[in-house]
Amino acid sequence: MEAKTLLQEHIAKTASLTQEEFDYFFSHFKPLSFKKGQTIISEGDKVDCEYFVVSGCLKAFFINDEIKMYILQFAMPTWWTSDYNALYNQTPAQINVDCITDAEVLCLSSSDREKLCAEFHQIEHFFRWRTNKGYIASQKRLLSFMNNNVKTRYEELLALYPQLYNLVPKHLIAAYLGVSRETLSRLHNS
Amino acid sequence: MEAKTLLQEHIAKTASLTQEEFDYFFSHFKPLSFKKGQTIISEGDKVDCEYFVVSGCLKAFFINDEIKMYILQFAMPTWWTSDYNALYNQTPAQINVDCITDAEVLCLSSSDREKLCAEFHQIEHFFRWRTNKGYIASQKRLLSFMNNNVKTRYEELLALYPQLYNLVPKHLIAAYLGVSRETLSRLHNS
DNA sequence: AAAAGATTGTGATCTACATCACGTAACCCA
DNA sequence: TGGGTTACGTGATGTAGATCACAATCTTTT
């Protein structure tokens, strides 16, 4: 699907904009294409934008001790991603974002987002709900982390996003679950 | 500090309301007082409200297998709490909220919040930012969970909220850290 | 098509933390 | 003021998952 239509249908679920308003909104987004493996945000970068995924799959991750990787989010079409802590607090990125597959994204700068939120009540409404859903999902994941063992978390993840099983290498799924790739591999037999 | 002043100063940090607008906003809140140990939300309840803490300390927690407790949030003055998943998706509460100390709260119904957000752009702005901060904090905690051992998480928590050490029994701090009370106790000696 | 790198599986061993068990001290509240 | 509940410490033992090591594919690049 075309980027503009995808975004429009996505927004329409929570906010009512006229076609004219949406066209204006859309004009602030910059379309970007990336190849598999390309980096969008690196640790230490100044972060100015957030990204709406049109096609492909990104990962937002943290590297500890230059060795261990922890994946905060897989970002699929219609998902938003960035290092929101860095973006809102104007601090250097602690999170990396790169492309698991070739990907197309729409890039929106933080200043444009704030401008658009101030100009259109409905746009502010949309972003409140988007963040709200992210917050609820994040709380659920935290609870699952405290409450469930690796096997249960793995099954939950696959039930929620079956396409990940074939799209994403297993060691990345392990990094999302916060477990070693060896342990994840052994789960298949138990 | 008086409940109304506390809320007004809290809101003023992110939204500009005239005194008249704030008075109208405030008129939708219901002040409630609770004693130490009293329950505000029980698992299975229909959840209609969110709560702004004026004084005291609440905990939002999840009980697994009728045995293990996991604390999602300690809620102190100027913090907001509820079972947001239940509140937004109109599902029965999975989270409990009760009082660690005597507490005063201001209660806002979800329908009033949505009404106020629709009526005043600045109020929608405020709630977007509040949720945004919650989302960022939740992501940070998730990262710390994956990345750090118990001792580091304990030190982080005490650095962020030193008052918790004396205010809250250790087994509740253990339940927040997702660790057994015995292990937490042993950390003091190591 | 060959070489190099990435991905996955699996055994052996190690470790952080859980669980069980028991003892002591502090705090309610009738 | 005394008896019961709650809080907290600490030893002994169990276990999920980490780490190390190596081998077998599968993918990408030249």
Please give the structural blueprint:
The structure is a homodimer of 190-residue chains.
Chain A: H1 3-12, H2 19-26, E1 30-34, E2 39-41, E3 49-55, E4 58-64, E5 68-75, E6 80-81, H3 84-89, E7 96-99, E8 103-109, H4 110-119, H5 121-147, H6 150-160, H7 164-167, H8 170-177, H9 181-187
Chain A binds a DNA duplex (30 and 30 nucleotides) through helix 9.
Organism (chains A, B): Flavobacterium defluvii
Pfam families (chains A, B): cNMP_binding (PF00027)
Domain Cyclic nucleotide-binding (chains A, B): 13-116
Task: State the gist of this model.
Chains A, B: Residues 13-116 form the Cyclic nucleotide-binding domain. 2 copies of one chain form a homodimer. Chain A has 190 residues and is of the alpha+beta class.
Provide a descriptive summary of the structure in words.
2 copies of one chain form a homodimer. With 190 residues, chain A is α+β, with helices and mostly antiparallel strands. Chain A has a domain at 3-109: Sandwich (Jelly Rolls). Chain A has helices at 3-12, 19-26, 84-89, 110-119, 121-147, 150-160, 164-167, 170-177, 181-187, and strands at 30-34, 39-41, 49-55, 58-64, 68-75, 80-81, 96-99, 103-109. In chain A, a hairpin with a 3-residue loop joins strand 4 (58-64) and strand 5. In chain A, helix 4 (110-119) crosses helix 5 and helix 8 packs across helix 9. The first copy, chain A, is globular and about 55 Å long. The mean pLDDT of chain A is 95. Chain A binds a DNA duplex (30 and 30 nucleotides) through residues 149-150, 169-171, 179-183, 185-186, 188-189.
